[in-house]
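Structure tokens
________________
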Amino acid sequence: MGFTSDVGRRDLIKRSAALGLITVPAMSVLSACASGGDDDTKKVDKGKKSAKNPLAVNESAALDVVIFDGGFGQQYAKDAEAEYAAAFPKTKGKVKHAATQKIQTVLQPRFNGGTPPDLVDNSGAEQMDMGTLVGKNQLTDLTPLLDAPSLDDPNKTVRETLRPGVVEMGQFDGKPVWILYYAYTVYGVWYSRTNLAKLDVEYPETWDDMLKVCEKAKKKGIAGWTYPGKFPYYLPFSLYPFIAKIGGREVLDAIDNLEPNAWKHPAVKAAFEAYYELYRKGYILKGTPGLTHIESQTAWNQGKALFIPNGSWVENEAKKTTPDDFQMAVSAPSGLDKSDKMPFGTLWASGGEPFIVPKAAKNPEGGMELLRIMLGEKSTKNFIKQVSSLSSLNGGTDGLDLPPGLASAQQALTKAGKNVVNPRLQDWYVTLQKQQIGVGALGEMMAGRMTPAETVKKCQKFADDTAKDDAVKKYKHV
């Protein structure tokens, strides 16, 4: 979402779902400071709990906030902080705001010393590793925030106002919720309504129709698909919900849980064979295996390919090369056939932009209250207008003039209803998802260097090796 470097962009993908691009350094840093988070004597006294102050915020205590200064910028957070100061006038001049692109570098000494901020937007290329933070007991459980009345409707809890999958994304092992993902990303197959109309076709809801559309495009000298071949972990953005549609969400759960033979499920095999057919029939844009995310998006914007797997940040990220009449849109993956377990419209959507309240924060109640304000309708609409992204609040778009891609993402979510899947592989097991399954298996298959059967076998081996690795903390769906 507006990153100018490949490293920053690749990490942003993970923000929508993936966590901790630089896992090893983060682990070493945080393991060294694991004893620095339990000194409650430094915390401010709690305030008086009331209907207007359900989290018992100390109404005169200072608040310390650090925001990642990336694609979303920082103004949306500053605006929410102003709302906080208005709600608690005695904090005027005491709300400290800092922004950085180097989260780990800036905050490492503070975590080491047991003096972290009260609220952190833990994003970017130097994002602190979430699994390590959770494993070292460095975070505050956000359950009190989720169970508090929402800002706009006291009859609904904050939890009840969130989009599907947001709470689960913040859970690693059991019921505690360690992370609140503020943005909300819709993944799927992105396309131009204008370019489909030029071919006199509509978005294909079945795979047979997808192949027909691609064949028609090929005759016009247009590729059916492209993707970031240098970063092929984009492929799962449409491939994983395709697998779920074919075999049910339990197939993805088994994969996430590292269950034996999970990758050998018939739904995985069928999905791989379908995608491989795109390569075999020449429907992939020539040279795609060598393209970056920006290069593939630019080729797509130029009309060289019809479809691209991506997330809803693409509209903002690709806006410099997007034609005015492009009419960007996203759809859930096409289905395989009538035997699919889930209906058309099944897609992957999940939280992004992870906010955390450190356990050693002096004013954790204040940090949670600021998040409660951010999840109100006023702050949500402000966020949407500023950065062209949905927030985790289930709503907030009424009355707003949304750009085409974001409007389409909202429509796709509405169509999906309860059929939203949220694979956890990419935030539970980063190396497995990105380097091994993404680059080492799917990238090879889509470049024609590995068959679907070989790819299934390779993915299963990677998963089995991870399951046997005692150095990797394991997580399971609850």
The first strand starts at residue 63 and ends at 68. The radius of gyration is 22 Å.
